[in-house]
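Sorry, can you check?
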Amino acid sequence: MLAVIRLRYPSTAASEVWSDAAMNNWLNPTIPFSLAHFWTRTSLFQADLNYFLFPAITLADPRSNAKPGQNPRTVLVDGVLAEITRLFSPDWSLFKNVLIVGAQQTDQFGGGGAHKVGNTMVLAAVVDVFSPFSNMCQELGHAFSLEHELNFLGDEYQSPYSVMSSELYGNNNSSFERPADPRLPVGKPKLTPNVSAVNTNDVQRIIGPYITPAQFSAANMGSFNDPNTVHAVPASFNTTPHTFRLTAYDAGIDAWPNRKVILGVINPVDPNADTYYLELRRNRSYDANFSADGVNTPPVAVVIHALSKITKRIRYVNRIALLGNGDTDYHDFNGHFVVRIGAFEPDFSAVTVTVADGETWRYFGIGLDDVVETALPPTRIDVGWQTADMSPCFMFPVAPHRFRNHFHNNMLSLRATSFGYEQPLYQWFLNDQLLDPAKNSIMLNLNVKVAEHGELSAAKPENINFSYENKPGSNKLKISCDEPYSGISAIVKVVVSESSHEVLQNLYPDRSLWTSIRFDNVTIEHDQAYIDEEIACAKRIKDLDDQYAKSQKPPHLVDPGPKFGVDVINVIDALVLSNPAAANAVINEVARLGNVAKKEVIGQMR
């Protein structure tokens, strides 16, 4: 059980003490962004958040009477526990942890060794009304025996993906401001700007991310050892790559008590090596400040932590962003393994992960996601309905019909991915012309179709301007074209290469991939009479074709070939009488192969 104590100094106004109602709400696991809500969820409902709220006490700061050599924080906690014992004589054997909340600037720490009260040893955390909520979650974590995450150099507060590293997060912005909630306690403004990157006048609204589940798994906490929650990667990954599905941490919490695999564990082949943990973190719930693009905040990613065999501390290793620079794998030289991400859900709720031996990085590749088309505001406006002589079908004579042009403007977004590279660098080309990141447009001469007199012309050469957005080395390209033509086609090529100077680049060969893009920026709308003729033409052709099919035996197909000197127009004229459907098909094919308009073919018929 958790003992919760409110501490007021005699010089502090009684109104500064959080009320019983606010405290009980703060310790209610059903109220979002309460202390109990965070801790029950981040611990997968394993942490003991049963509590007893003592009446607020008024006590002079015990540290003012500390003797030389005494630890002031120990003196503070012991003094508060002694006063609670004097006033209320609680049965301390009921409690494992103590949370002291100062009504004034008091201190901010947790753990640091057990405190003996009566015949019981308890772990304590101390916070105050100036403590960000994220830091309060962290200090209570210390009371549950958790430590800050380190980096490879041993620096503290280094994981962007855990509140046990708040508010530094390895120099990342992982916290955010929650909406106001009158049910919850109100904190004070930040004492200094560097307390948090979050701008707020209420530090209780500074919300940090869930604690990495690696912390709980390493501590052997309950459900974090269940194989339906924590997936142990078999040692055979060294000979055969192992693939499994990983659920986002928040999604696994939401699904409880239905278990989802929210953590993968790579146990070392060498018994003296470190253990590695894989988790998927996305921008939901307490992780809401993570971002898809990772530009200003940590990205949605498969996150890698490790447990040191020597220090028994958790350290942040790296991450593989789902929508980052396109690098879909991570090679750990120390752990002798490669982690590669595969398909993931559109909402980032799950991802396929493959773990393979450390030499797998030698297999290189590049891929392209599906092209995403986004409609932009048109830059041209049609003049309205016009009249021209035309026919939708060779079976109807040319006649006046009304038409109007519709102009479109679209942007295409392309995203490349790669594997095998340490720091992949991408270059983009359009029809083999390098798209210079320092520029934003390129002119190409292409064959396109022009809207003329109610019809699209045969393809003809035009100078076409493409606008693009391409940051240096980026795996993303955005390209648009607002020229008033249809059938604008080009080939996009992307080349990936190794950019890290910490490896032998000649061991990392370039890879490239092509795809075609197309813009149809003008479409033609015809009047109802024209459409009716199209429908009637199609019906007459079908009726004639059905009639012909019933009355004729299947012909013996012999290709006359050019050696017979048969004129194509004569063939079409003959087919109009014998098989109109075939005639229409030949007209279309001749127009396509000859790169001419359909009406030009019809115009040469007898």
Summary: The first strand starts at residue 2 and ends at 8. The CA atoms of residues 100 and 126 lie 5 Å apart. The radius of gyration is 35 Å. The chain has a mean pLDDT of 92.
